[in-house]
């Protein structure tokens, strides 16, 4: 138990370290902090912002200046190091301020072993998949934005929380049956600098949502007694669990059970292939995926009004794009100056064998057409399977 608590205590900070050598970790971040400090000083001089010579406490820099520095960073490791300097910098720079796209993880056979591979943000200058975590064929994974992924062995139903970048594995209580979808999320905590991690899963055996308590020791079940719950997706939204059935019905859970059940407009959900729930810029988005003959996959995007249950059609997501998968989906802001080929107001998805001839399917919401994100620079991507989206943790809000 002590070992688990130790892992849990460092949950947010693990991904800001080099896991291979403890002495190298200290040296690595010492160099990072020094280079950031020097870079920032030079930036202030160019901007003609004067700081008294007596000011040596970098933790007292104004928040707007700190965020100006973040806007100048182009390497994710620098951002992680920046937020590791002190508690004030960590709290002043929200994790979502790093506007990046998620990583793509996948399984690949290597020398009779199954290796979890990682593609860092699919940027142009990456030409290979990094081996992150050795696994087995029987394990299934669900991505998250916390730096952790939930995994279940399909043979004996064991559950684990895995950090693929540090290879830390936390054993979880078994459910005794397969889950159709799992989610790891940041849950409320008394420590704003180190939030708790929540875990939930769609459990068809218990006709509802299975929820792991804060101590990661016991599962509890939330179900809708009025209906046999065939939930297809679930999200943690504004301190509530929001799930969607295959019929399109939205069910909102609180600690006591069902807080609301919203019937969908019949003309919005008819003849669909898949439904997804995603939080984007504070809104709850519903994606309706259909298969259109001759045109392939087609998506319709709606914003859900939880007060009225209304579905408001969305014709664009501004600077945001959505990354959709059977295991995990996320919305991210696309920078104008990333130098990559990612586009805003698009849906990138890893369902239905997405990697074909080194292409990733993309649906342009504004123009309502299917496009491709080319991966021609990445070697061996065609030999991978079971793709999931994954966000390395960079801290807390």
Automatic annotation (TrEMBL):
SMART domains: FBOX (SM00256). Residues 55-101 form the F-box domain. This is F-box domain-containing protein.
């Amino acid at each position: 138990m002590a070992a688990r608590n130790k892992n849990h205590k460092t949950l947010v900070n693990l991904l800001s370290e080099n896991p291979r050598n403890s002495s190298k970790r200290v040296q690595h971040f010492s160099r990072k902090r020094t280079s950031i400090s020097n870079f920032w000083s030079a930036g202030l001089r160019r901007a003609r912002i004067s700081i008294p010579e007596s000011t040596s406490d970098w933790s007292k820099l104004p928040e707007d200046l700190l965020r100006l520095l973040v806007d100048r960073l182009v390497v994710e490791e620098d951002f992680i190091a920046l937020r590791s300097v002190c508690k004030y910098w960590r709290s002043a720079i929200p994790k979502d301020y790093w506007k990046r796209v998620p990583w793509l993880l996948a399984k690949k056979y290597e020398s009779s072993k199954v290796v979890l591979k990682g593609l860092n943000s699919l940027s142009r200058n990456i030409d290979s998949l990094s081996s992150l975590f050795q696994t087995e064929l029987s394990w299934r994974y669900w991505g998250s934005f916390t730096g952790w992924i939930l995994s279940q062995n399909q043979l004996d139903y064991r559950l684990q929380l895995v950090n693929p970048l540090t290879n830390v594995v936390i054993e979880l209580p078994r459910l005794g049956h397969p889950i159709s979808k799992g989610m790891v999320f940041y849950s409320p905590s008394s420590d704003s600098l180190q939030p708790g991690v929540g875990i939930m899963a769609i459990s068809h055996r218990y006709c509802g949502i299975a929820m792991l308590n804060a101590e990661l020791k016991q599962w509890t079940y939330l179900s809708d007694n009025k209906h046999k719950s065939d939930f297809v997706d679930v999200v943690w939204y504004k301190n509530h669990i929001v799930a969607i059935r295959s019929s399109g019905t939205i069910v909102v859970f609180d600690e006591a059970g069902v807080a609301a059940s919203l019937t969908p407009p019949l003309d919005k959900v008819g003849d669909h292939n898949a439904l997804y729930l995603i939080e984007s810029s504070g809104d709850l988005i519903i994606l309706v995926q259909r298969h259109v003959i001759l045109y392939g996959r087609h998506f319709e995007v709606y914003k859900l009004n939880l007060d009225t249950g209304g579905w408001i059609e969305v014709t664009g997501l501004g600077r945001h794009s959505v990354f959709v998968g059977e295991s995990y989906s996320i919305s991210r802001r696309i920078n104008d100056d990333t130098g990559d080929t990612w586009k805003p107001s698009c849906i990138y998805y890893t369902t239905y064998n997405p990697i074909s001839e080194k292409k990733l399917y993309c649906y342009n919401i504004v123009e309502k057409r299917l496009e491709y994100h080319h991966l021609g620079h990445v070697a061996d991507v065609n030999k991978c399977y079971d793709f999931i989206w994954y966000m390395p943790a960079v801290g807390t809000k």
